[in-house]
C-alpha cells in the first residue's frame, strides 16, 4: 500500500494534505492490538515520505 500511495501522490500532489489529514486521524483501536504498532509504523513512514 505504501508504494501505491506514493505513486498516486507523484501524479496527484494536490492530494498530499488530504492524505496526511486522513492518516493522522485514523483510529487504530479498531485493529487488533498486535497490529496497531505495525500500522502506526507504516503510517509514520508514509508521513515522512509525503
Number of strands: 0
Order of helices and strands: HHH
Total tally of structural domains = 1
Largest sheet: none
Quick synopsis:
With 50 residues, the protein is an all-alpha fold.
Tell me what you see in this structure.
The protein has 50 residues and is mostly helical. It has one domain (2-49). It is 72% helix and 0% strand. The mean pLDDT is 91.
Detail the topology: elements first, then pairings.
Blueprint: H1 2-11, H2 16-24, H3 33-49
Keywords:
mainly alpha
Amino acid at each position: 500500500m505504501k508504494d501505491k500511495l506514493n505513486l498516486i501522490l507523484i501524479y496527484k500532489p494536490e492530494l498530499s494534505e488530504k492524505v496526511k489529514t486522513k492518516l493522522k486521524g485514523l483510529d487504530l483501536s479498531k485493529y487488533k492490538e498486535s497490529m496497531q504498532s505495525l500500522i502506526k509504523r507504516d503510517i509514520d513512514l508514509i508521513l515522512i515520505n509525503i
